[in-house]
Design goal:
Length: 73
């Protein structure tokens, strides 16, 4: 199991373009990505525009969602 420090060094930064690219790659709408993360469609909109920055928790969830979607390919 990774320590918190180790995980923080490998955690993806999840910039607005990373979130948009994830959505495009897996044909997700803002609503469907929001549902996977447990947040609103509006929150995803704000993340994509760079008006909000994802919290550490959302970054961890995005990592998990991306990994799960990769395995489903």
């Amino acid at each position: 199991m990774l320590t918190e420090l180790a995980y923080n060094t490998i955690m993806k930064p999840w910039r607005p373009e990373d979130i948009t690219n994830l959505k495009k790659k897996y044909s997700l709408s803002q609503r469907s990505l929001g549902n996977l993360l447990g947040v609103s469609r509006n929150y995803i909109y704000y993340l994509e525009r760079g008006e909000k920055r994802p919290s550490k928790t959302i970054k961890l969830l995005l990592d998990c969602v991306e990994e799960k979607l990769k395995k489903g390919e």
